Automatic annotation (TrEMBL):
Transmembrane segments: none annotated. It comes from Dyadobacter luteus. InterPro entries: Bact_Beta-galactosidase, Beta-gal/glucu_dom_sf, GH, Ig-like_fold, LacZ_4. This is beta-galactosidase. Pfam families: LacZ_4. Its EC number is 3.2.1.23. One of its GO terms (cellular component) is beta-galactosidase complex.
Amino acid sequence: MRIFTLILGLILLTTFDKSVAQLYDTANVKLQIINPTLVLEHGGWDSAKDVIDLATYSRGYIWKSGTYSAKDINETVCISLNPASIRKQYKDTVIIFTSKKVFGIAKPEDLPPKLLTAHADELIHGKLVLWNAESPAWYLGKITPIIDNRKDQQDYEFYQSLSKFTVRNGLPFLNGRPVRLNTVRYKSTFSDKEKMIRDILALKSSNTNTAIVNRLDTSWLTLCDSLGFYTIMEHSLLPTATASGSFNEYVDIFSDDHNSGGYVPNIKFGSLIFFYVNSDDRSKVKKLNQDIPFFARYPNTFYGANDLPGVLTLKYETYLGDSTVNSNNNRKVLSNLQKIYRHIESELKAPEKGILTVTNNFSFRNIEGTIFRWKALNGHHLVEGSGTVPNLPAGESIAISLNFPKDTFSKSSTYSFEISFSPKNDTDFHGMKYITSPYYREYTAPDR
């Protein structure tokens, strides 16, 4: 806790020093709330969860101005679920609660007042929806501070999305469920928001759902939260890093000064699932995870190559974010990703009977109602049709009869078969027209 307090204090002091000239020009600003955050409980993630009933409301305070002693500081906090498509699925979309008494002190004779800080945590009860890339849910919060039973300053707004990443036996889990990470490296200066949106949508349409980046950017993470895209932050430790040196390194990770002008904790973004430490030294990774709960209240944030061998030891395609989508490199990467990753897999198991096996490779989404269109072609003879996928939960398979005409595979010949899948409506999967690229395969019909 001493480490956390020291770093928080240094950040707050820096903020105060930079803005002290402006503080006393705004008489109605008495108190600043620092990093209001909803924190998930550390335990109880052995089973899959879409909604949790309990979280911790964590925040800090800094007394900025005022000439009176405040004895009681309370807050009314309102958090609302977004986006609208997610709200339709849940009954309780707004949570309102009043915080308990926290603290309050400022000496009237202090002009300007002394810089005083405090930190407070308390449990809140309510149905909180967890974030995942297939069903991205986030919260917008508004805090109304009440000082000595009166509201004398502006409301404070904050953003939050909630997810819980864990590892079991070297396999990734999100919110208690096995999760597929279809990964690409993304290199960018993160300077163009519209370009980042186009990149995320292009990568999603190529069946990718995860980007490995080498720097943090709140604009990128906010877009990943809203569009549904996982982010892994890759970080290399210095070869000579000591316990102190390692600490300085990961403090830099959590400070996003280039983008926000202040301290931005990673815990606010559900899309940032973990940090990848590019090192095989388990002792260094362990040291980081021992210190990190004091700083971000987030256990096991760092993972090394040995912790997720099936995820972090692979070589990935590199998409260049500062190039156009149609550049030679990016066009090739997108084409390769479509071949490597498939959200839905299908195979014509018995061509002569028209039996199609469909596998749902999503981690969270039931693909019931997904539309499929198929073609079977032999020379100029074409047979085609369409249908919808029945109830098919994530990770499961099902056999579907395509009702081929009797003579489709009546002779010993080679036929091509092509199938594509698309959402049941344009709003599914955030505007993606197709979930999968067309699947093509040649079959030789059996003799009859």
